[in-house]
Design brief:
single chain, about 290 residues, alpha/beta, Nitrilase/N-carbamoyl-D-aminoacid amidohydrolase, six-stranded mixed β-sheet, 5 helices
Length: about 290
């Protein structure tokens, strides 16, 4: 293990899917120019965040994986010798769709996909209308530069997901994300929500002793009703922020991550050693309401 430079592409999106793809590729190129070896794009980066409404026409945005976007991105990955983490709207079969992230290795090969396991259904986040919960389980991918784990947005709130991914050997956990504030909310509520979002993910880094990379979109969508809060960040295995993006601007950033720190953190904070796995069976229940 050694150091690896990771790139984050925080961007706004428009209705034109080709324009979004080209913008993302420009971000990948910039990150690679700045030394990135693994580049993560935000959730559903090829389109506006269409889950703000329940509209059957939006299913036309979906594509197969592998498919058109991965074909384009695999060529970019091979050209630049970078790993690309690409979150896409997957059409698996007629009437069957997933929120899915594809992993392309530095030689352009398709390593596989992770399908989002936890699907929200909140005002302006009507994902259950579009997405079937993932059925591939939690995944890690051995890339040229590191073994990575990938989870997606709403998965961020579940420590079980990050724990399992870490136990599978992930050296870095990536979270492509699309989350924001309702413009009707007061500033204190906005900040409380953002702080909770960042804190829960930093806690995953601490509990598992591995870095967390979270990449969010930015900008107004839904005709100004929703402002995606950006705030992409990288935290090391003790939860220390190595990078924090703005709430308002597109940013492409490269951050150097020391993979050797995981062993040091886990030796001094031996959470994995002290786990009482014999006592955790109740976690498989929905709620413990009986003796």
């Amino acid at each position: 293990m050694a150091n690896v430079k990771v790139g984050l592409v925080q961007m706004s999106c428009v209705k034109d899917t080709k324009a979004n793809l080209h913008k993302a590729i420009d971000g990948i190129r910039k990150a690679a120019h700045d030394g990135a070896k693994i580049v993560c794009l935000q959730e559903l980066f090829t389109s506006l965040y269409f889950c703000d409404v329940e509209d059957y026409d939006n299913f036309e945005l979906a594509e197969t994986i592998p498919g058109p976007s991965t074909d384009v991105l695999s060529k970019v990955a091979k050209e630049l010798n970078v790993v690309i983490i690409a979150s896409l709207f997957e059409k698996r079969a007629a009437g069957l769709y997933h929120n899915t992230t594809a992993i392309l290795d530095a030689d352009g090969s398709y390593l596989g996909k992770y399908r989002k396991m936890h699907i929200p259904d909140d005002p302006a986040f009507y994902e259950k209308f579009y997405f079937t919960p993932g059925d591939l389980g939690y995944k890690v991918f051995q890339t040229k530069y590191a073994k990575i784990g990938v989870l997606i947005c709403w998965d961020q709130w579940y420590p079980e997901a990050s724990r399992i991914t870490a136990l599978m050997g992930a050296e870095i956990m990536f979270y492509p994300t699309a989350i924001g504030w309702a413009t009707s909310q007061d500033e204190e509520t906005n900040q409380d929500q953002y702080n909770a979002w960042q804190t829960i993910q930093r806690s995953h880094a601490v509990a598992n002793g591995v870095p967390v990379v979270s990449v969010n979109r930015v900008g107004f969508e839904q005709e100004g009703a929703m402002k995606f809060w950006g705030g992409s960040f990288v935290a090391n295995g003790q939860g220390k922020l190595l990078y924090l993006a703005s709430h308002d601007h597109e940013e492409t950033k490269v951050v150097d991550i020391d993979l050797n720190q995981a062993n040091e953190f886990r030796i001094h904070w031996p959470f994995l050693r002290d786990r009482r796995i014999d006592s955790y069976l109740p976690i498989t229940k929905r709620y413990i309401d009986e003796a």
